[in-house]
Amino acid sequence: MTNEKSQICTTVDTLKPALITLSHNIHSNPELGFQEHKAAGFIASLLESQGFTVERGYCGIETSFRAVKKGKAPGPRISFLAEYDALRGIGHGCGHNIIATCATGAFLGLASIMDNYDGEISLIGTPAEEGGAGKAILLERGAFDQTDYALMMHPSGGGSKANLIGRGGRASGSVTVSFQGKAAHSSVPANGVNALNAAISVFNQIDMLRPTFQMQDNINGVILEGGVAGNIIPEFSKCEFCIRAETMHRIEELIEMIQGCIDRAAQLTGAVPSVEMEPIYAERYPNMPMCEAFKANMEELGETMCYPDPKKQYGSSDIGNVSIKIPSIHDYISITDDETIQSHSADYTKAAAMPEADEVCIKGAKGLAMTGLDILRSQEFRDEINKFHENQIPDCYKGK
Predict the structure, then answer these.
(1) What is the torsional sign of CA 36, 219, 270, 231?
(2) Which of 134, 165, 197, 312 has the fewest CB atoms within 10 Å of its CB?
């Protein structure tokens, strides 16, 4: 390990008590997307205690923020991305307290040697990953206009075989539809307009269309509201659909398909639809030169890193939107050897605050910071990263 990487590790180790406290504070105060006022405040307060100025409410989002450390002259611009939103009813069952802590520790670790290098590093708080597409909104608002390279990690579970680099992710979208009908006594249903029937019709139509789906297409739905009593014709219904596909363009096609189902349901039942859609989460394009550098650094720290199963279908994240525009990594480090503990579960929430997770906070911070250093100090490496990105991103996304 080089002297500068050793210095990064020493800085992170010195900050370990503060970083673990940060992780536990976020974990103990779970907040949903765009409501993460405490989490953003915890991170900002730690940064300010270390002498950094924090721009709160970054790009007009209350729970976003940005802190910057400039080098000795202009040069490559690296951003570490922090997530800190929780899951409804589960808390930090996706370990975003760990993501936030790793990003914060990486920023502080690399900042300790930035005076030796050209360029700048930043820590960007990216709220609402679990729903709301915070990074996609930030991207549209120019939050990454001053970023050349984006780095973050994500906790996983299942031991070293779940320490993954270069894992992609499918595109995803969300459609919420409400139907307004008319209540009536169930003995005279013709006097009402059944909003629940409209919702059920949408589900049935989607099921009829499934044989036409492509291999990677997936639509899951749930009825959120569907009436209040069996002897009342439901005057209101609400359902939500989560859509996954290989590309963002395919998501757009599936949303159009669902819209057709909604329109037909409205025509059949007379219920009036209202549709809400979140920004689409794009498919992910991991930058493999950066991933390989992260792998080498994590292995130097004692971790075994692996590659994902190319046949396995993976979930989605708004880092995909960033990865189209900017060379990005979103690699995985396991916080538990127990293969039965999976993310988005109560057991994973508990695991995200255990000593093993605390160690991942520290190792992950070091690995990200060391990878950032690799980028800062080598024009040849940056050229390799940029060339890979240029060749990797489909032409349909270029120039947009």
Answers:
(1) negative
(2) 312
